[in-house]
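Input.
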Amino acid sequence: MNRERLFSQLASHSGPFDIAIIGGGATGLGAAVDAASRGHSVVLIEQSDFAKGTSSRSTKLVHGGVRYLKQGNVSLVLEALRERGLLCKNAPHLVHSLPFVIPSYHWWEGPFYGIGLKVYDTLAGQLGLEPSRYLSREDMIALLPTLETEGLDGGVMYHDGQFDDARLAIHLARTAVNHGAVTLNHTRCCGMMKENGHIIGVKAECMETGAQHEIRARCVINATGVFVDDLRRMDDAKAENIVAPSQGVHLVLPREFLPGDSAIMIPKTDDGRVLFAVPWHGRVIIGTTDTPVHHTSLEPRPLPDEIEFLMKHAARYLTRDPRPCDVLSIFAGLRPLVAAKAGSTAELSRDHTILVADSGLITITGGKWTTYRRMAEDVIDHAEMVGGIGVKRCVTHDLMIHGSATVLAKDDPLAVYGSDASDIRALATYEPEWAGKVHPKLDLTCAEVIFHTRHEMARTVGDVLARRSRSLLLDAQASMSAAPRVAALIATELGWDAKTTAHQVERYQHLACGYILEG
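Output.
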């Protein structure tokens, strides 16, 4: 996946593309994979980097949504469980089963949650993971030695999926390119092209060079997440908002706060939302909040109340109370919930919505990572009708994601690369200096940085440290210290001069400061 080569492919394309997609998150990339694998010509543009927004800021879970059973939304649970099973099958290098434990501090909670989880197991059917089971107090303490034991009666264990969200996004981009799509990061939509009121393409600008491109397409899809309304108003200045953004915040702690291989799930917190404590890449993620917000940003920041909420609940359920100095990173993401009359964002629909404007612009929003494939199938079905490009069968049900040919052991530091891991190891063999880590507290090696730049379209220090690797989330302070080394490596690949390299380091360190909890 080479950016210069893809721009050349864009320039040499004759006639309009079948489909142009705006937005390089889970939804846009999933749509690109679906359309390209059907045989359509596809171009995707992303103003920043792939998965820069919400798609890299999830709770890292591929799940059916246990709490939706309580809401009675069985259809959403069924769809999500089915998609969870397909993801485990099609991206086994990135998605795996993880045991979750629900602690019971009242005698009735075990049977109450146990019955619900048996229904969850049944709904999963043949695509289920492992059956749920009851746990005694002794079982709970053995599995979760740092769980608060005062009043503990027992618990219930069930299984859901876990993944690395930004890594899956990168592998989806590579899958789309493997099927002929043109996927361009750091390329923003700066206008719509119209004839007789109908959209015939988009105007795009390369954020690196400022070069302008007119991209003709038979159909244009708006898959920009929480920013869909901004793009809809680019098409129609009078378009009303359809998204009510909600902010979710997570904090990252050292693994000693939750040793072992099981996650904790608290079904109902003070704000009515589920709380998770999840082991991930040698750390523990605590989240998430659900806070309505009125402004959207590529870099949302946690609010003081959200931080206090997570710290209070972590202290409530863990024997060791976390302090601000224990927090390795804290990050926020915005959910594109479909606007509706509801008491809180926790009650808004998690289903996806597709709208077709009079101009032909197709907007898709809502949904979640777990159902990205189904969302893509739906929106490309619409695109085929709106663009008149011919109906072709969706093949993503059985389409293996890039890298899936090799599944490494979970504890292998290169496991998330799948079959690409051998290429990274070859780089380290070719240049032994590249085998070293960029920082003692991070697993990221120099060879990985070179690979990110050569084959995964990393164009900035942030692209590498925040998304190609997850260094920013795993240890924000260490990632700041690693930034000069990472910038120097990228500079050798992209030909940066000293001024550009220094600017990249400064820009990243300013960004990373927002992920460090002061106090």
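The first strand starts at residue 17 and ends at 22.
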